[in-house]
Amino acid sequence: MTTQTTTSKTAASPAASTATGLIGIPPHLGRALATGGSLLAVVSTFLAWTWTAAFPGDLTVYAYPGGLQVLVLVGGALAALFGLSSYGVKGLGWLTPAGADAALKYAVLGTFATAWYTVLAITIDLGGLVNLEPGGYLVAAATLIALIGALALPFERPEPDPFDPDDTGWERFKHSTGHSLAVLRAAFASGSPRPVRTLPGYAEILIIVGVLALALVVFTYGIGTEYDELFVGFLITAGFGFAALNRSGLIAHASQITGRHTNITVCGAFIAAACFPFTQTDDQYATLGVYILIFATVALGLNIVVGLAGLLDLGYVAFLGVGAYAAALVSGSPSSPFGVQFPFWAAVIVGAVASLIFGVLIGAPTLRLRGDYLAIVTLGFGEIFRIAANNTDGTSGPDLTNGSNGIASVPDLKILGFDLGIQHDIAGFTIGRFANYFFLMLLITAVVVLVFRRSGDSRIGRAWVAIREDETAAEAMGIHGFRVKLIAFAVGATLAGLAGTVQAHVTYTVTPEQYLFAGTSPPNSAFLLAAVVLGGMGTIAGPLIGAALLFLIPNKLQFLGDFQLLAFGLALVLLMRFRPEGLIPNRRRQLEFHEEAEAPTVLSKTGA
Prior knowledge:
mainly alpha; ABC transporter involved in vitamin B12 uptake, BtuC; 2 domains; two-stranded antiparallel ribbon; 21 helices; globular
Protein backbone atom coordinates (compact mmCIF):
# COMPACT_ATOMS: atom_id res chain seq x y z
CA MET A 1 0.00 0.00 0.00
CA THR A 2 1.15 3.54 -0.70
CA THR A 3 0.99 6.39 1.77
CA GLN A 4 -0.50 9.76 0.92
CA THR A 5 1.14 12.84 2.36
CA THR A 6 0.15 16.42 1.84
CA THR A 7 2.89 18.89 1.07
CA SER A 8 1.64 22.40 0.61
CA LYS A 9 3.40 25.71 0.48
CA THR A 10 2.13 28.59 2.51
CA ALA A 11 2.03 32.22 1.62
CA ALA A 12 4.66 32.91 4.27
CA SER A 13 7.21 30.47 2.90
CA PRO A 14 8.50 30.76 -0.62
CA ALA A 15 11.04 28.11 0.28
CA ALA A 16 10.58 25.15 2.56
CA SER A 17 12.84 22.74 4.39
CA THR A 18 12.62 18.96 4.68
CA ALA A 19 9.17 17.72 5.67
CA THR A 20 8.96 16.84 9.36
CA GLY A 21 6.24 16.68 11.98
CA LEU A 22 5.55 18.80 15.05
CA ILE A 23 6.58 15.84 17.21
CA GLY A 24 9.88 14.13 16.54
CA ILE A 25 8.82 10.53 15.99
CA PRO A 26 9.00 8.67 12.66
CA PRO A 27 6.13 9.62 10.32
CA HIS A 28 5.18 5.98 9.63
CA LEU A 29 4.86 5.37 13.38
CA GLY A 30 2.85 8.57 13.80
CA ARG A 31 0.45 7.53 11.05
CA ALA A 32 -0.03 4.13 12.67
CA LEU A 33 -0.65 5.72 16.08
CA ALA A 34 -3.17 8.20 14.64
CA THR A 35 -5.11 5.52 12.78
CA GLY A 36 -4.89 2.89 15.52
CA GLY A 37 -5.76 5.36 18.27
CA SER A 38 -8.84 6.47 16.33
CA LEU A 39 -9.97 2.86 15.94
CA LEU A 40 -9.46 2.28 19.68
CA ALA A 41 -11.56 5.38 20.39
CA VAL A 42 -14.36 3.85 18.32
CA VAL A 43 -14.08 0.59 20.28
CA SER A 44 -14.18 2.47 23.60
CA THR A 45 -17.63 3.88 22.81
CA PHE A 46 -19.06 0.37 23.17
CA LEU A 47 -17.79 0.19 26.77
CA ALA A 48 -19.12 1.94 29.87
CA TRP A 49 -17.41 5.25 30.66
CA THR A 50 -18.90 5.74 34.11
CA TRP A 51 -20.70 3.55 36.62
CA THR A 52 -23.58 5.92 37.41
CA ALA A 53 -26.42 7.26 35.28
CA ALA A 54 -26.16 10.58 37.13
CA PHE A 55 -24.09 11.98 34.26
CA PRO A 56 -26.34 13.09 31.38
CA GLY A 57 -26.65 10.65 28.51
CA ASP A 58 -26.30 7.43 30.52
CA LEU A 59 -22.77 6.31 29.61
CA THR A 60 -23.07 3.16 31.73
CA VAL A 61 -24.37 0.79 29.05
CA TYR A 62 -22.10 -1.70 27.28
CA ALA A 63 -22.37 -2.28 23.51
CA TYR A 64 -24.79 0.64 23.07
CA PRO A 65 -23.16 4.10 22.74
CA GLY A 66 -25.20 6.98 24.11
CA GLY A 67 -24.91 10.73 24.52
CA LEU A 68 -21.37 12.01 24.05
CA GLN A 69 -20.17 8.50 23.17
CA VAL A 70 -22.02 8.80 19.85
CA LEU A 71 -20.08 11.96 19.01
CA VAL A 72 -16.74 10.32 19.83
CA LEU A 73 -17.82 7.32 17.73
CA VAL A 74 -18.51 9.60 14.75
CA GLY A 75 -15.29 11.57 15.17
CA GLY A 76 -13.17 8.47 15.68
CA ALA A 77 -14.69 6.71 12.67
CA LEU A 78 -14.04 9.76 10.47
CA ALA A 79 -10.43 9.98 11.67
CA ALA A 80 -9.91 6.24 11.13
CA LEU A 81 -11.26 6.52 7.56
CA PHE A 82 -8.89 9.39 6.81
CA GLY A 83 -6.05 7.37 8.32
CA LEU A 84 -6.84 4.32 6.18
CA SER A 85 -7.16 6.57 3.13
CA SER A 86 -3.68 7.93 3.83
CA TYR A 87 -2.40 4.35 3.53
CA GLY A 88 -3.91 4.13 0.05
CA VAL A 89 -6.58 1.58 0.97
CA LYS A 90 -8.52 0.76 -2.17
CA GLY A 91 -11.92 2.43 -2.36
CA LEU A 92 -11.13 5.23 0.11
CA GLY A 93 -9.17 7.57 -2.16
CA TRP A 94 -12.29 9.62 -2.90
CA LEU A 95 -12.34 10.71 0.75
CA THR A 96 -9.17 12.77 0.44
CA PRO A 97 -8.88 14.48 -2.96
CA ALA A 98 -6.68 17.19 -1.38
CA GLY A 99 -4.56 14.77 0.69
CA ALA A 100 -5.25 12.96 3.93
CA ASP A 101 -2.79 14.35 6.46
CA ALA A 102 -4.40 17.72 7.25
CA ALA A 103 -7.86 16.13 7.37
CA LEU A 104 -6.57 13.39 9.67
CA LYS A 105 -5.08 15.98 12.03
CA TYR A 106 -8.33 17.93 12.30
CA ALA A 107 -10.43 14.79 12.77
CA VAL A 108 -8.11 13.43 15.47
CA LEU A 109 -7.96 16.80 17.22
CA GLY A 110 -11.77 17.02 17.27
CA THR A 111 -12.13 13.47 18.62
CA PHE A 112 -9.51 14.18 21.28
CA ALA A 113 -11.27 17.40 22.31
CA THR A 114 -14.70 15.74 22.58
CA ALA A 115 -13.36 12.71 24.46
CA TRP A 116 -11.31 14.68 26.97
CA TYR A 117 -14.11 17.20 27.44
CA THR A 118 -16.39 14.27 28.35
CA VAL A 119 -13.86 12.68 30.71
CA LEU A 120 -13.20 15.99 32.46
CA ALA A 121 -16.94 16.71 32.70
CA ILE A 122 -17.54 13.30 34.31
CA THR A 123 -14.66 13.87 36.73
CA ILE A 124 -15.80 17.37 37.72
CA ASP A 125 -19.56 16.77 37.81
CA LEU A 126 -19.39 13.48 39.71
CA GLY A 127 -16.44 14.31 41.94
CA GLY A 128 -13.25 12.57 40.86
CA LEU A 129 -11.58 10.03 38.58
CA VAL A 130 -13.03 7.25 40.69
CA ASN A 131 -16.27 7.67 38.74
CA LEU A 132 -14.65 6.56 35.48
CA GLU A 133 -15.07 3.03 34.17
CA PRO A 134 -12.45 1.29 31.93
CA GLY A 135 -14.08 2.70 28.79
CA GLY A 136 -13.43 6.24 30.03
CA TYR A 137 -9.74 5.55 30.63
CA LEU A 138 -9.46 3.78 27.28
CA VAL A 139 -10.96 6.66 25.27
CA ALA A 140 -8.71 9.18 27.03
CA ALA A 141 -5.59 7.13 26.30
CA ALA A 142 -6.62 6.22 22.74
CA THR A 143 -7.36 9.80 21.68
CA LEU A 144 -4.13 11.06 23.29
CA ILE A 145 -2.14 8.43 21.39
CA ALA A 146 -3.95 9.36 18.18
CA LEU A 147 -3.19 13.06 18.73
CA ILE A 148 0.51 12.39 19.31
CA GLY A 149 0.60 10.34 16.13
CA ALA A 150 -1.25 12.97 14.09
CA LEU A 151 1.14 15.71 15.20
CA ALA A 152 4.05 13.57 13.99
CA LEU A 153 2.78 13.56 10.38
CA PRO A 154 5.23 15.37 8.09
CA PHE A 155 4.68 18.76 6.47
CA GLU A 156 6.83 21.35 4.74
CA ARG A 157 8.13 23.78 7.35
CA PRO A 158 8.46 27.41 6.25
CA GLU A 159 11.97 28.81 6.47
CA PRO A 160 12.29 31.58 9.09
CA ASP A 161 13.22 35.05 7.90
CA PRO A 162 16.61 36.19 9.24
CA PHE A 163 16.70 38.45 12.28
CA ASP A 164 17.61 42.09 11.88
CA PRO A 165 20.71 42.77 14.02
CA ASP A 166 19.11 46.02 15.21
CA ASP A 167 15.93 44.31 16.47
CA THR A 168 15.04 44.77 20.12
CA GLY A 169 14.17 41.84 22.35
CA TRP A 170 10.45 42.49 21.86
CA GLU A 171 10.83 42.61 18.07
CA ARG A 172 12.75 39.32 18.14
CA PHE A 173 10.00 37.78 20.26
CA LYS A 174 7.33 38.94 17.77
CA HIS A 175 9.44 37.57 14.93
CA SER A 176 9.79 34.18 16.61
CA THR A 177 6.10 34.07 17.51
CA GLY A 178 5.12 34.91 13.95
CA HIS A 179 7.31 32.12 12.61
CA SER A 180 5.85 29.65 15.12
CA LEU A 181 2.34 30.56 13.98
CA ALA A 182 3.41 30.14 10.35
CA VAL A 183 4.72 26.66 11.19
CA LEU A 184 1.45 25.81 12.93
CA ARG A 185 -0.58 26.98 9.92
CA ALA A 186 1.62 24.93 7.61
CA ALA A 187 1.13 21.86 9.81
CA PHE A 188 -2.63 21.97 9.21
CA ALA A 189 -2.52 23.12 5.58
CA SER A 190 -3.71 20.94 2.74
CA GLY A 191 -2.95 20.77 -0.93
CA SER A 192 -5.19 21.63 -3.87
CA PRO A 193 -7.94 19.06 -4.45
CA ARG A 194 -7.83 16.89 -7.52
CA PRO A 195 -10.27 17.88 -10.28
CA VAL A 196 -13.73 16.43 -9.86
CA ARG A 197 -14.21 13.40 -12.06
CA THR A 198 -17.15 13.84 -14.40
CA LEU A 199 -19.99 11.60 -13.26
CA PRO A 200 -23.34 10.78 -14.87
CA GLY A 201 -26.04 13.29 -14.05
CA TYR A 202 -28.03 10.84 -11.92
CA ALA A 203 -24.91 10.05 -9.85
CA GLU A 204 -24.28 13.72 -9.11
CA ILE A 205 -27.93 14.17 -8.15
CA LEU A 206 -27.65 11.20 -5.78
CA ILE A 207 -24.59 12.84 -4.21
CA ILE A 208 -26.58 16.05 -3.72
CA VAL A 209 -29.40 14.06 -2.09
CA GLY A 210 -26.89 12.38 0.22
CA VAL A 211 -25.32 15.71 1.23
CA LEU A 212 -28.72 17.25 1.98
CA ALA A 213 -29.82 14.18 3.95
CA LEU A 214 -26.62 14.39 6.01
CA ALA A 215 -27.24 18.09 6.63
CA LEU A 216 -30.79 17.32 7.83
CA VAL A 217 -29.50 14.62 10.19
CA VAL A 218 -26.83 16.94 11.64
CA PHE A 219 -29.29 19.82 12.09
CA THR A 220 -31.94 17.58 13.65
CA TYR A 221 -29.40 16.10 16.05
CA GLY A 222 -28.04 19.52 17.01
CA ILE A 223 -31.42 21.14 17.59
CA GLY A 224 -32.58 18.11 19.58
CA THR A 225 -29.68 18.00 22.07
CA GLU A 226 -31.34 17.83 25.48
CA TYR A 227 -28.56 18.92 27.82
CA ASP A 228 -25.67 21.38 27.85
CA GLU A 229 -22.80 18.88 27.84
CA LEU A 230 -24.13 17.15 24.74
CA PHE A 231 -24.57 20.41 22.82
CA VAL A 232 -21.03 21.57 23.63
CA GLY A 233 -19.73 18.19 22.45
CA PHE A 234 -21.85 18.53 19.30
CA LEU A 235 -20.31 21.93 18.56
CA ILE A 236 -16.79 20.52 18.99
CA THR A 237 -17.44 17.48 16.80
CA ALA A 238 -19.31 19.41 14.11
CA GLY A 239 -16.72 22.19 13.98
CA PHE A 240 -13.68 19.95 13.68
CA GLY A 241 -15.55 17.55 11.41
CA PHE A 242 -16.38 20.37 8.99
CA ALA A 243 -12.76 21.55 9.09
CA ALA A 244 -11.52 18.01 8.39
CA LEU A 245 -13.90 17.54 5.45
CA ASN A 246 -12.87 20.94 4.13
CA ARG A 247 -9.15 20.10 4.34
CA SER A 248 -9.73 16.74 2.70
CA GLY A 249 -11.16 18.49 -0.35
CA LEU A 250 -14.60 16.88 -0.07
CA ILE A 251 -16.33 20.21 0.60
CA ALA A 252 -14.75 21.71 -2.52
CA HIS A 253 -15.82 18.71 -4.61
CA ALA A 254 -19.37 18.85 -3.24
CA SER A 255 -19.51 22.59 -3.96
CA GLN A 256 -18.52 22.01 -7.57
CA ILE A 257 -21.16 19.32 -8.00
CA THR A 258 -23.91 21.44 -6.42
CA GLY A 259 -22.77 24.40 -8.53
CA ARG A 260 -23.48 22.38 -11.67
CA HIS A 261 -27.01 21.61 -10.44
CA THR A 262 -27.97 24.82 -8.64
CA ASN A 263 -31.71 24.58 -9.17
CA ILE A 264 -31.82 20.94 -8.07
CA THR A 265 -29.76 21.78 -4.99
CA VAL A 266 -32.01 24.68 -3.98
CA CYS A 267 -35.19 22.63 -4.47
CA GLY A 268 -33.65 19.70 -2.62
CA ALA A 269 -32.66 21.94 0.28
CA PHE A 270 -36.24 23.15 0.69
CA ILE A 271 -37.56 19.60 0.47
CA ALA A 272 -35.08 18.53 3.17
CA ALA A 273 -36.16 21.47 5.34
CA ALA A 274 -39.82 20.52 4.82
CA CYS A 275 -39.00 17.05 6.17
CA PHE A 276 -37.78 18.50 9.48
CA PRO A 277 -41.18 18.67 11.26
CA PHE A 278 -41.81 15.03 10.37
CA THR A 279 -38.66 14.04 12.29
CA GLN A 280 -40.05 15.51 15.53
CA THR A 281 -42.33 13.78 18.02
CA ASP A 282 -43.71 17.05 19.42
CA ASP A 283 -43.80 20.79 18.68
CA GLN A 284 -40.89 21.72 20.96
CA TYR A 285 -38.15 21.92 18.36
CA ALA A 286 -40.46 23.07 15.58
CA THR A 287 -40.69 26.24 17.67
CA LEU A 288 -36.96 26.77 17.27
CA GLY A 289 -37.25 25.88 13.60
CA VAL A 290 -39.81 28.57 12.79
CA TYR A 291 -37.89 31.24 14.71
CA ILE A 292 -34.70 30.26 12.91
CA LEU A 293 -36.50 30.63 9.57
CA ILE A 294 -37.80 34.09 10.50
CA PHE A 295 -34.33 35.18 11.58
CA ALA A 296 -32.69 33.62 8.51
CA THR A 297 -35.16 35.23 6.10
CA VAL A 298 -34.54 38.68 7.55
CA ALA A 299 -30.77 38.06 7.42
CA LEU A 300 -31.06 37.15 3.74
CA GLY A 301 -32.88 40.43 3.10
CA LEU A 302 -30.10 42.30 4.91
CA ASN A 303 -27.63 40.44 2.70
CA ILE A 304 -28.96 42.39 -0.29
CA VAL A 305 -28.19 45.66 1.48
CA VAL A 306 -24.85 44.69 3.03
CA GLY A 307 -23.59 41.78 0.95
CA LEU A 308 -24.53 42.91 -2.56
CA ALA A 309 -24.79 46.71 -2.33
CA GLY A 310 -22.20 47.18 0.43
CA LEU A 311 -24.40 49.47 2.59
CA LEU A 312 -23.82 49.12 6.34
CA ASP A 313 -27.29 49.15 7.92
CA LEU A 314 -27.30 48.98 11.74
CA GLY A 315 -31.03 49.51 12.19
CA TYR A 316 -32.36 46.84 9.86
CA VAL A 317 -34.41 45.06 12.53
CA ALA A 318 -36.75 48.07 12.51
CA PHE A 319 -38.08 47.00 9.10
CA LEU A 320 -38.98 43.62 10.60
CA GLY A 321 -40.84 45.53 13.29
CA VAL A 322 -42.67 47.72 10.77
CA GLY A 323 -43.94 44.64 8.94
CA ALA A 324 -44.95 42.93 12.18
CA TYR A 325 -46.79 45.98 13.54
CA ALA A 326 -48.54 46.64 10.22
CA ALA A 327 -49.78 43.05 10.00
CA ALA A 328 -50.81 42.97 13.67
CA LEU A 329 -52.84 46.17 13.31
CA VAL A 330 -54.97 44.74 10.48
CA SER A 331 -55.24 41.11 11.64
CA GLY A 332 -58.09 41.41 14.15
CA SER A 333 -56.17 41.98 17.38
CA PRO A 334 -58.34 43.50 20.14
CA SER A 335 -55.42 45.84 20.91
CA SER A 336 -55.56 47.35 17.42
CA PRO A 337 -57.28 50.75 17.20
CA PHE A 338 -58.51 49.94 13.69
CA GLY A 339 -60.69 46.95 14.59
CA VAL A 340 -60.30 45.24 11.20
CA GLN A 341 -59.23 41.74 10.21
CA PHE A 342 -57.73 41.38 6.76
CA PRO A 343 -57.15 37.99 5.16
CA PHE A 344 -53.55 36.84 5.36
CA TRP A 345 -52.65 37.72 1.78
CA ALA A 346 -53.86 41.29 2.34
CA ALA A 347 -52.01 41.56 5.68
CA VAL A 348 -48.83 40.37 3.95
CA ILE A 349 -49.20 43.07 1.32
CA VAL A 350 -49.83 45.71 4.00
CA GLY A 351 -46.74 44.65 5.99
CA ALA A 352 -44.47 44.46 2.96
CA VAL A 353 -45.67 47.78 1.51
CA ALA A 354 -45.37 49.53 4.89
CA SER A 355 -41.76 48.35 5.20
CA LEU A 356 -41.11 49.39 1.59
CA ILE A 357 -42.43 52.90 2.27
CA PHE A 358 -40.34 53.23 5.43
CA GLY A 359 -37.30 51.96 3.53
CA VAL A 360 -37.72 54.63 0.86
CA LEU A 361 -38.48 57.37 3.39
CA ILE A 362 -35.38 56.54 5.41
CA GLY A 363 -33.16 55.80 2.44
CA ALA A 364 -33.99 58.85 0.31
CA PRO A 365 -32.40 61.45 2.62
CA THR A 366 -29.62 59.24 4.01
CA LEU A 367 -28.20 57.16 1.16
CA ARG A 368 -26.18 60.09 -0.12
CA LEU A 369 -24.00 59.42 2.91
CA ARG A 370 -21.32 56.75 2.84
CA GLY A 371 -19.50 54.42 5.21
CA ASP A 372 -19.66 55.17 8.92
CA TYR A 373 -22.02 58.11 8.47
CA LEU A 374 -24.65 55.88 6.86
CA ALA A 375 -24.18 53.31 9.62
CA ILE A 376 -24.78 55.94 12.32
CA VAL A 377 -27.92 57.25 10.61
CA THR A 378 -29.42 53.75 10.21
CA LEU A 379 -28.59 52.97 13.83
CA GLY A 380 -30.49 56.12 14.79
CA PHE A 381 -33.48 55.04 12.70
CA GLY A 382 -33.63 51.70 14.48
CA GLU A 383 -33.71 53.41 17.87
CA ILE A 384 -36.22 56.04 16.69
CA PHE A 385 -38.59 53.27 15.57
CA ARG A 386 -38.45 51.55 18.95
CA ILE A 387 -38.94 54.81 20.87
CA ALA A 388 -41.78 55.90 18.59
CA ALA A 389 -43.51 52.54 19.06
CA ASN A 390 -43.22 53.02 22.82
CA ASN A 391 -44.64 56.55 22.72
CA THR A 392 -47.62 56.02 20.39
CA ASP A 393 -49.73 54.77 23.29
CA GLY A 394 -52.48 57.39 23.37
CA THR A 395 -50.77 59.29 26.21
CA SER A 396 -47.35 60.38 24.97
CA GLY A 397 -48.53 60.36 21.37
CA PRO A 398 -51.27 59.04 19.06
CA ASP A 399 -53.05 55.84 20.05
CA LEU A 400 -51.57 53.45 17.51
CA THR A 401 -49.20 50.81 18.92
CA ASN A 402 -50.46 50.52 22.53
CA GLY A 403 -47.03 51.63 23.78
CA SER A 404 -44.82 49.23 25.68
CA ASN A 405 -47.68 46.72 25.98
CA GLY A 406 -47.66 46.28 22.22
CA ILE A 407 -50.30 44.72 19.99
CA ALA A 408 -51.44 41.66 21.93
CA SER A 409 -53.60 38.63 21.14
CA VAL A 410 -52.85 38.55 17.43
CA PRO A 411 -55.05 35.67 16.22
CA ASP A 412 -53.73 32.59 14.49
CA LEU A 413 -53.92 32.48 10.73
CA LYS A 414 -56.52 30.66 8.69
CA ILE A 415 -55.51 30.14 5.08
CA LEU A 416 -58.11 28.63 2.73
CA GLY A 417 -59.89 27.17 5.76
CA PHE A 418 -56.68 25.65 7.17
CA ASP A 419 -56.24 26.80 10.78
CA LEU A 420 -52.54 27.13 11.57
CA GLY A 421 -53.24 27.41 15.28
CA ILE A 422 -54.37 23.82 15.83
CA GLN A 423 -52.85 20.37 15.32
CA HIS A 424 -53.40 18.46 12.11
CA ASP A 425 -52.73 14.83 11.18
CA ILE A 426 -50.88 14.40 7.89
CA ALA A 427 -50.05 10.88 6.68
CA GLY A 428 -50.04 9.59 10.23
CA PHE A 429 -47.85 12.45 11.53
CA THR A 430 -49.19 14.98 14.02
CA ILE A 431 -48.28 18.49 12.91
CA GLY A 432 -48.58 21.07 15.69
CA ARG A 433 -49.05 24.83 15.65
CA PHE A 434 -45.39 25.77 15.25
CA ALA A 435 -44.89 23.13 12.57
CA ASN A 436 -47.75 24.73 10.62
CA TYR A 437 -46.04 28.09 10.83
CA PHE A 438 -42.74 26.42 9.94
CA PHE A 439 -44.20 25.34 6.60
CA LEU A 440 -45.64 28.82 5.99
CA MET A 441 -42.34 30.48 6.86
CA LEU A 442 -40.52 28.02 4.61
CA LEU A 443 -42.70 29.24 1.74
CA ILE A 444 -41.86 32.87 2.59
CA THR A 445 -38.17 31.97 2.73
CA ALA A 446 -38.43 30.38 -0.72
CA VAL A 447 -39.90 33.62 -2.08
CA VAL A 448 -37.06 35.63 -0.52
CA VAL A 449 -34.45 33.24 -1.95
CA LEU A 450 -36.03 33.56 -5.38
CA VAL A 451 -35.97 37.36 -5.16
CA PHE A 452 -32.34 37.31 -4.02
CA ARG A 453 -31.24 34.98 -6.82
CA ARG A 454 -33.10 36.79 -9.57
CA SER A 455 -32.09 40.26 -8.44
CA GLY A 456 -28.49 39.25 -7.78
CA ASP A 457 -28.09 37.84 -11.30
CA SER A 458 -29.87 40.74 -12.96
CA ARG A 459 -28.59 44.03 -14.31
CA ILE A 460 -29.48 45.76 -11.05
CA GLY A 461 -27.57 43.08 -9.14
CA ARG A 462 -24.44 43.76 -11.16
CA ALA A 463 -24.92 47.46 -10.46
CA TRP A 464 -25.11 46.72 -6.71
CA VAL A 465 -21.83 44.83 -6.86
CA ALA A 466 -20.21 47.65 -8.84
CA ILE A 467 -21.35 50.19 -6.25
CA ARG A 468 -20.04 47.95 -3.47
CA GLU A 469 -16.61 47.57 -5.06
CA ASP A 470 -16.07 51.22 -6.07
CA GLU A 471 -18.94 53.69 -6.11
CA THR A 472 -16.93 56.45 -7.77
CA ALA A 473 -15.81 54.20 -10.61
CA ALA A 474 -19.34 52.80 -10.99
CA GLU A 475 -20.82 56.28 -11.35
CA ALA A 476 -18.13 57.16 -13.86
CA MET A 477 -19.32 54.16 -15.91
CA GLY A 478 -22.87 55.52 -15.97
CA ILE A 479 -24.46 53.78 -12.96
CA HIS A 480 -26.79 56.05 -10.99
CA GLY A 481 -25.40 55.33 -7.53
CA PHE A 482 -28.15 56.90 -5.42
CA ARG A 483 -30.97 55.25 -7.36
CA VAL A 484 -29.31 51.83 -7.26
CA LYS A 485 -28.67 52.05 -3.52
CA LEU A 486 -32.24 53.19 -2.87
CA ILE A 487 -33.57 50.16 -4.75
CA ALA A 488 -31.38 47.87 -2.62
CA PHE A 489 -32.60 49.55 0.55
CA ALA A 490 -36.24 49.28 -0.53
CA VAL A 491 -35.99 45.62 -1.58
CA GLY A 492 -34.22 44.68 1.66
CA ALA A 493 -36.82 46.50 3.76
CA THR A 494 -39.68 44.81 1.87
CA LEU A 495 -38.27 41.33 2.48
CA ALA A 496 -37.83 42.05 6.19
CA GLY A 497 -41.43 43.28 6.38
CA LEU A 498 -42.58 40.10 4.67
CA ALA A 499 -41.03 38.02 7.45
CA GLY A 500 -42.48 40.37 10.06
CA THR A 501 -46.04 39.65 8.94
CA VAL A 502 -45.58 35.99 9.90
CA GLN A 503 -43.68 36.80 13.10
CA ALA A 504 -46.65 38.80 14.42
CA HIS A 505 -48.88 35.70 14.29
CA VAL A 506 -46.23 33.29 15.59
CA THR A 507 -45.46 35.34 18.71
CA TYR A 508 -49.09 36.47 19.34
CA THR A 509 -47.74 39.82 20.60
CA VAL A 510 -45.70 42.58 18.95
CA THR A 511 -43.84 44.87 21.37
CA PRO A 512 -41.13 47.53 20.87
CA GLU A 513 -38.57 45.64 22.95
CA GLN A 514 -38.48 42.84 20.38
CA TYR A 515 -36.61 45.14 17.97
CA LEU A 516 -33.41 46.25 19.67
CA PHE A 517 -30.04 47.06 18.17
CA ALA A 518 -28.33 44.49 20.41
CA GLY A 519 -29.44 41.91 22.94
CA THR A 520 -28.67 38.48 24.32
CA SER A 521 -30.85 36.74 21.74
CA PRO A 522 -31.89 37.39 18.15
CA PRO A 523 -33.47 38.88 16.21
CA ASN A 524 -31.75 42.24 16.68
CA SER A 525 -29.70 44.36 14.30
CA ALA A 526 -26.33 43.28 15.70
CA PHE A 527 -27.14 39.58 15.42
CA LEU A 528 -28.58 40.05 11.93
CA LEU A 529 -25.41 41.73 10.72
CA ALA A 530 -23.31 39.07 12.46
CA ALA A 531 -25.32 36.33 10.71
CA VAL A 532 -24.55 37.85 7.31
CA VAL A 533 -20.84 38.32 8.04
CA LEU A 534 -20.48 34.96 9.80
CA GLY A 535 -22.28 33.03 7.08
CA GLY A 536 -20.73 34.80 4.11
CA MET A 537 -21.75 38.08 2.51
CA GLY A 538 -23.23 37.97 -0.96
CA THR A 539 -24.28 34.31 -0.82
CA ILE A 540 -27.63 32.62 -0.24
CA ALA A 541 -26.58 29.71 1.97
CA GLY A 542 -24.24 31.85 4.09
CA PRO A 543 -26.78 34.05 5.93
CA LEU A 544 -29.18 31.10 6.29
CA ILE A 545 -26.52 28.98 8.01
CA GLY A 546 -25.18 31.94 9.98
CA ALA A 547 -28.66 32.80 11.23
CA ALA A 548 -29.33 29.19 12.22
CA LEU A 549 -26.10 29.06 14.22
CA LEU A 550 -26.60 32.45 15.88
CA PHE A 551 -30.14 31.57 16.93
CA LEU A 552 -29.46 28.02 18.03
CA ILE A 553 -26.20 28.55 19.93
CA PRO A 554 -27.45 31.28 22.34
CA ASN A 555 -30.60 29.23 22.90
CA LYS A 556 -28.56 26.17 23.83
CA LEU A 557 -25.84 27.96 25.82
CA GLN A 558 -28.11 29.70 28.32
CA PHE A 559 -26.18 27.99 31.11
CA LEU A 560 -23.34 30.47 30.47
CA GLY A 561 -25.54 33.24 31.86
CA ASP A 562 -23.72 36.57 31.92
CA PHE A 563 -20.75 35.07 30.07
CA GLN A 564 -22.85 34.22 27.00
CA LEU A 565 -22.06 37.42 25.10
CA LEU A 566 -18.39 37.13 26.07
CA ALA A 567 -18.19 33.64 24.57
CA PHE A 568 -20.11 34.80 21.51
CA GLY A 569 -17.76 37.76 21.02
CA LEU A 570 -14.64 35.61 21.35
CA ALA A 571 -16.02 33.15 18.80
CA LEU A 572 -16.65 35.98 16.32
CA VAL A 573 -13.15 37.40 16.85
CA LEU A 574 -11.58 34.00 16.17
CA LEU A 575 -13.75 33.47 13.11
CA MET A 576 -12.90 36.88 11.67
CA ARG A 577 -9.23 36.20 12.32
CA PHE A 578 -9.04 32.78 10.73
CA ARG A 579 -11.94 32.82 8.24
CA PRO A 580 -12.84 36.45 7.53
CA GLU A 581 -14.76 35.58 4.36
CA GLY A 582 -17.37 33.62 6.38
CA LEU A 583 -18.41 29.99 6.60
CA ILE A 584 -19.89 29.85 3.08
CA PRO A 585 -17.78 32.44 1.27
CA ASN A 586 -18.49 34.33 -1.89
CA ARG A 587 -15.77 33.16 -4.30
CA ARG A 588 -14.59 36.66 -5.13
CA ARG A 589 -14.27 37.57 -1.44
CA GLN A 590 -12.44 34.30 -0.80
CA LEU A 591 -9.85 35.26 -3.39
CA GLU A 592 -9.52 38.71 -1.80
CA PHE A 593 -8.75 37.24 1.63
CA HIS A 594 -6.68 34.27 0.44
CA GLU A 595 -4.49 35.28 -2.47
CA GLU A 596 -2.90 31.84 -2.60
CA ALA A 597 -6.27 30.18 -3.34
CA GLU A 598 -6.95 28.98 -6.84
CA ALA A 599 -9.24 31.20 -8.87
CA PRO A 600 -12.44 29.47 -9.99
CA THR A 601 -12.81 29.00 -13.70
CA VAL A 602 -16.15 30.83 -13.77
CA LEU A 603 -17.57 33.46 -11.45
CA SER A 604 -21.27 34.24 -11.37
CA LYS A 605 -22.44 37.75 -12.06
CA THR A 606 -22.36 38.53 -8.36
CA GLY A 607 -19.12 36.68 -7.70
CA ALA A 608 -20.76 33.74 -5.97
